């Protein structure tokens, strides 16, 4: 018990936390003597025959405790005659006789009563006994009616208790189902977020891959251009080395550039015969790879100057032939890049088709589960079996049509690839025209593949939405069925 009233209302959560942690409460005195823990008390025996144990006040063998133990153990008490003079039960009596006092009884004993009066008293005694019996009978009937009414009340209360227990069980089950549903919804939301993040990462990786492929193509073309320039300069160096000194002029004309930067570049970047050193070639290639294909104005001017010099030195036919060869080479690399992109798109399409098949399979299973639950709820097994057979036939037809269309598209692509073979023995003009047509076809094919992949992605998203919706419907129907079964059972 608390010694005084607390100043403020206690916080029950904080008190329970203190109790769980085992903190000792303040201002509490306990006078409880029920089942104490006695470890350091000397043991005393109540009776010599029993075992040694601590003796409480209620265990001492006095008359009062012995009588209480007999009452608790159910000892049959002896019959006791009482001299009760409380108000009697007089229901059912027709004749009331006043009870005599002690003085009247003594006076009656002293007086001598006649024989007629004695006979009358005996008759009165018979009437009294009959009246007592009748009153006793009425009291017993009243007691029986009370007992029957009590039994009826007990049965009604017992039924009420059973109904309340079943209602409590149903509420508990409903609460558990709602908790499970909330957990499933949270899990579904997290999975949707993860799938969306994975899709974004995949799109980002695809874009990065495309940019890297384009940069690779540019660097490859630049490397080929550098090799061609190096070969031309080496050829020029050899031509200058085998110079005809007899027909050489006495004093060569030296032309100085307008800016000093060009002079230093000529001196450091070119050898005596005009050939660049390995260090200069590596410097130019690294600078081009860092700039990612973006040429500075000075480099573009140098390339234009070198190309103009080549065109001036060589014949126009040879220049045109080299230009055609360069364009043919560019077209072949472009076609090869398109083919690589088409292969990647086909792989992506195959993965998307596998996802569609898996989702269709899961959706079919969920629909079967939903239909089985609907059969149990509606009790219409025959009608639902007929509808199931019809729907299964329709699904099989759709799958066959899809596989046929896929086989046709693959066969058409293989035929186009066979027809797109490049013959190197043809002339450069014919090869250029053929390669341009092939490049356009490959570009259109890649675009159609990407478009088809977008459609497949949309189909995958739609199947995911249908699957989640079907699962929610199955879960709600299962909850309704469980609640109905709980109410019936």
Chain-wise SSE layout:
Layout (H helix, E strand, L loop, with lengths): L11 H10 L41 H11 L28 H9 L4 H127 L18 H10 L8 H14 L5 H17 L2 H63 L2 H39 L8 H61 L1
Helix pairs in contact: 4-6, 4-8, 4-10, 8-10
N-to-C order of helices and strands: HHHHHHHHHH
Number of helices: 10
Outline the low-pLDDT stretches.
114-120, 243-279, 288-303, 391-404
Span between N and C termini? Answer: 47 Å
Overall average pLDDT: 73
Give the strand content: under 5%
Shape: elongated
State the major sheet. none
Cα-atom radius of gyration: 57 Å
Helix share bin: over 70%
User: Class by helix and strand content?
Assistant: mainly alpha
Number of strands: 0
Structure report:
It holds the Pfam family WH2. Residues 299-318, 386-428 have a biased composition (Acidic residues). Keywords: Coiled coil. With 489 residues, this protein is mostly helical. It has a domain at 320-389 and 428-489. It has helices at 12-21, 63-73, 102-110, 115-241, 260-269, 278-291, 297-313, 316-378, 381-419, 428-488. The relative contact order is 0.04.
What's this entry about, in short?
The protein has 489 residues and is mostly helical.
């Amino acid at each position: 018990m608390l010694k005084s009233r607390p100043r403020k209302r206690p916080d029950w959560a904080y008190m329970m936390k203190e109790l769980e942690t085992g903190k000792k409460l303040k201002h509490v005195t306990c006078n409880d003597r029920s089942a104490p823990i006695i470890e350091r008390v000397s043991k005393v025996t109540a009776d010599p025959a029993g075992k040694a144990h601590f003796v409480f006040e209620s265990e001492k063998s006095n008359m009062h405790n012995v009588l209480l133990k007999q009452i608790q153990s159910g000892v049959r008490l002896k019959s006791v005659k009482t001299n009760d003079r409380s108000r009697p039960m007089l229901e059912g009596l027709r004749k009331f006789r006043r009870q005599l006092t002690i003085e009247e009884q003594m006076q009656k004993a002293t007086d001598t009563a006649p024989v007629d009066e004695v006979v009358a008293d005996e008759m009165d005694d018979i009437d009294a006994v009959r009246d007592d019996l009748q009153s006793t009978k009425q009291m017993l009937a009243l007691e029986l009616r009370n007992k029957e009414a009590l039994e009826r009340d007990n049965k009604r209360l017992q039924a009420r208790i059973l109904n309340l227990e079943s209602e409590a069980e149903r509420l508990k089950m409903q609460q558990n189902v709602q908790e499970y549903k909330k957990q499933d919804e949270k899990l579904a939301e997290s999975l949707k977020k993860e799938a969306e993040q994975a899709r974004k990462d995949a799109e980002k990786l695809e874009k990065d891959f495309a940019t890297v492929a384009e940069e690779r193509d540019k660097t490859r073309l630049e490397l080929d251009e550098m090799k061609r320039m190096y070969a031309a300069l080496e050829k020029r160096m050899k031509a200058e080395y085998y110079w005809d000194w007899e027909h050489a002029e006495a004093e060569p004309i030296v032309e100085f550039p307008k800016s000093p930067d060009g002079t230093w570049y000529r001196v450091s970047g070119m050898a005596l015969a005009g050939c660049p050193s390995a260090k200069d070639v590596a410097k130019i290639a690294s600078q081009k790879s860092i700039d990612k294909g973006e040429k500075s104005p000075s480099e573009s001017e140098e390339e234009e100057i070198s190309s103009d010099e080549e065109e001036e030195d060589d014949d126009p036919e040879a220049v045109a032939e080299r230009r055609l060869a360069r364009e043919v080479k560019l077209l072949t690399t472009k076609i090869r890049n398109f083919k690589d992109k088409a292969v990647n798109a086909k792989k992506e399409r195959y993965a998307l088709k596998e996802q569609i098949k898996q989702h269709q399979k899961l959706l079919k299973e969920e629909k079967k589960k939903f239909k089985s639950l609907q059969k149990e709820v509606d009790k219409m097994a025959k009608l639902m079996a007929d509808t199931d057979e019809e729907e299964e036939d329709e699904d099989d037809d759709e799958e066959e049509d899809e596989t046929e269309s896929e086989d046709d598209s693959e066969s058409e692509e293989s035929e186009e690839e066979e027809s797109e073979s490049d013959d190197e023995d043809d002339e450069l003009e014919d090869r250029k025209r053929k390669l341009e047509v092939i490049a356009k076809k490959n570009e259109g094919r890649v675009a159609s593949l990407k478009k088809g992949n977008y459609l497949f992605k949309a189909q995958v998203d739609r199947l995911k939405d249908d699957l989640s919706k079907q699962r929610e419907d199955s879960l709600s129907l299962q909850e309704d069925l469980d609640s109905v079964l709980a109410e019936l059972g």
